[in-house]
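Attaching the record inline, Q. Sequence:
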Amino acid sequence: MGAVVGPVLGHSKGQERALGEELELELALELCEHRRSVELIALLAISCTFFLFMHTNKLNSRLKEMEVKLQPSEFSALGLTGNHISGHDAGKHDDINTLHGTYQYLKSTGQLQHLTSTAQVNNTRRAQLDTLFFNRVPKAGSEKLMALLKLLAKRNKFQARRDHEQLYETILMDTGFARHLLEAEILNCSTANSYTKHMAFLNFTEFGQPWPIYVNLVRDPLERLISWFYYARASWYLADRVKTFGSKFKMPSVQWLKKDFNRCLLTHDPECVYEQLDMNHLGDHRRQTLFFCGQQRALCMPFNSRSAMQQAKRNVEQHYAVVGTWEDTNTTLRVLEAYIPRYFAGATDLYYAMQSNMENVNRNAFRPALSEQARALLSRNLTQEIEFYQFVRQRLNKQFIAVQQMAQSSNN
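Structure, as predicted:
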């Protein structure tokens, strides 16, 4: 019998080659997948690094924004009499416009060693009654501070009061009106309290009355004007006015409502002409200095007046415990807590606990950006207002440094 040929065990050369190629393909695919994974991980790492870089940059920018800008002037809290830095030269002195730069300046001039007591820059001790008086500046964030005062009133056991809402605010008042306001409203409380009203600075001595604890807020003069321009045109603001005052409030024309601030300014629309020493236009609140200068119309009403600005500086230094700004939120809260603890103890914690709600208080979402041309023109017309604003921030800066100095001394 012939041999029986069984099935061939193993593979032919062709089959082995095909199998090898298949294995190589699978290996290549695995390597490709592995390479893709590595590339994906690398891409993810790069993305994370870029995100962290951008986030760090953003945080750094926000920290810089929080730094206090400082501009020396005649009645400077740093004693820089005669060393005023003009707007033209301000860019050459950027270091002094930061909190660190201010600290270095005080240190280099020998003033830092004398800043050992907050009493040197705190007028709270001069108050003669337990009343916090907030003669608020329009469009400087006063609603936010009023909301904070309501919370603080519960925490620190005082009454948070305000004036009755009016169709037209009485900023300047005659002697009879002022006396009645003092007796019937501001001083008409026998317990610890705060009282808030839109009005120009009032000299309590002239009425034979004890001094309260004066506080206020300021805002960049350009930003205030732009803010008011669009705030007065906001639909929700107009609806609220109609709801509150009914037929007494006259709705403006559609043409007026559609105005654009840039065009209004550059075309010299009467509403946006800021004539120097002008005695009119009290209603648009263009004069931030008025709220610190006082009730003397001849002195304080002329728009962008240097005399009014200097008087406002004197009143701030002599009579205000703290004048802060939400543009330096942490600095303002820290100084308020340190200088007026009876009313502001715990202010920082309360503020940040409800920050999300506070950020939208009286905020107008619709506000086109100001063009560079319009900004330059507006700045030239607000020189005294800008100097006063920078002076106030300078004073706040020094108060903050004094607080830090005291804290450091205590720790040592």
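Residues 72-411 form a domain with the Rossmann fold fold (CATH 3.40.50.300). Residues 13-66 form the longest helix (54 residues).

More tomorrow.
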